[in-house]
Amino acid sequence: MANLFKLRKGLDINLAGRAERKKIQLKSNGKYALQPDCFIGVVPKVVVKEGDKVKAGDALFINKNYPEMKFASPVSGTVTAVERGERRKVLAVKVDADATQVFTDFGVKDVKKLSGDEVKAALLEAGLFGYINQLPYDVVTTPDSNPKAIFVSALRDKPLAAEFDFELEGQEKEWQAGLTALSKMAKTYLGIGAKQESVKALADAEDVEVNVFDGPCPAGNVSVQVNHVSPVNKGEVVWTVDPSAVIFFGRLFLTGKVNLKRTVALVGSEVKQPQYADMLVGEELQTLLSNSYDSKHNVRIINGNVLTGRVTTKDGFLGAHSSEITVIPEGDNADELAGWIMPRFNQFSVNRSYFSWLFGKKKAYSLDARVKGGQRHMIMSGEYDKVIPMDIYPEYLVKAIITGNIDKMEQLGIYEVSPEDFALAEFVDSSKLELQRIVREGLDMLRRENG
């Protein structure tokens, strides 16, 4: 019997452009790139050079501080460039794919007979261990960490989020093999939504403890689930794994090959036909975005979710943890007659400042990327508390981070949070602060301090 957690705090934002549950078939242009920035906390050391031939599963770069941690190429082909930025920072390792794919064979393994150390060794060898993150700090974990538990959240409830139930169809064996593999390394918790209890592969998953979270966004955030099930105290570590990565792990053990294919939702009010497509991690977005929206409009393309993703272009590449590619209006050409004095029936608001509240929650809104105002003094209004369902004081925590008060940060629960937990607070914040960036800087500060 699954444990039920009812959450009251949060906010569901109904945006126009949700993906229809059907897939389009894409023809790749053969250009791929693995980006170290997708793996927060990793110091990359490139182990290939331009012109090298690689197989799918071969390492493109490693973690300089933990050389046993490899990061696998999604395809076989020729390394075309190692792109660097300021101070020679590695931005991407680019590969042009072969017409016929060749895979490095890591050998089929019966995951039920493996020990935790053998599972970890297999993931390290295949370049997949880097898809495991950890709390505290919300960074890629390290091979020497000893987690007290592993958490997987199959509930994606952010605006326009891709439905994991749809991605899971036909991959139930790989999913279960991945969960079993994780359970060998530590006690594993699977979080699902109330509506997902009818999905047998989720509700009846073996070798894990299933917890049902019923409530508005961000009930699907894995750190919110950790906070309710097994909070992180100073000195403790929990691992967190994206559900798509669980399928990656399962494929490795069942086939002996690295297959980084994931189901991605093309969403947003500017998209002509929002729907799903299967893509490899690192695939160029031109394949997906070609003719998918009206190029005459100024749009913002987001690699990931509308609340937490990164701005990109058609020439960008699918992020390692991106389940959505979102296209929304930029808003830089908006011309509103009389500005704020208008009743605004088509503008979303969390309070009754606009008359749109008369339509209730059913109306789907087409929001643009404007901030609508500059930064101003931080007001202790309780706005953050209403949308963060965690046992912390978010406003006081943000103030402690801004002032660099590490003792206060620890006392106020920074070990339990990740930047995405503050995405909704950033959305409703009347002070217009970049809360996710502030929290990221606070976590990095604490990690450096603790060495």
Which descriptor suits the 3D outline? globular
Give the DSSP E fraction (strand runs of 2 or more residues): 15-25%
For the termini, the CA-CA separation is 41 Å
Report on the biggest sheet: 7 strands, mixed
Total strands: the figure is: 20
Number of helices: 12
Helices and strands: which structural class? alpha/beta
- Integer-rounded radius of gyration: 22 Å
Q: Strand order across the biggest sheet?
A: 1-14-13-12-15-10-11
Average of the residue pLDDT scores: 93
Can you tell me about this structure?
- By secondary structure, the protein is of the alpha/beta class.
- It has twelve helices and 20 strands.
- It has helices at 116-126, 164-168, 172-185, 200-203, 222-229, 243-255, 286-289, 383-387, 394-403, 406-411, 423-428, 435-450, and strands at residues 3-6, 23-24, 31-34, 44-46, 53-54, 59-63, 66-72, 77-84, 90-97, 132-135, 139-140, 149-153, 188-193, 209-214, 238-241, 261-267, 275-280, 299-303, 310-312, 324-329.
- A hairpin with a 2-residue loop joins strand 6 and strand 7 (66-72).
- The radius of gyration is 22 Å and the shape is globular.
- Helix 3 (172-185) packs across helix 6.
- It starts with a strand and ends with a helix.
- It has a seven-stranded mixed beta sheet.
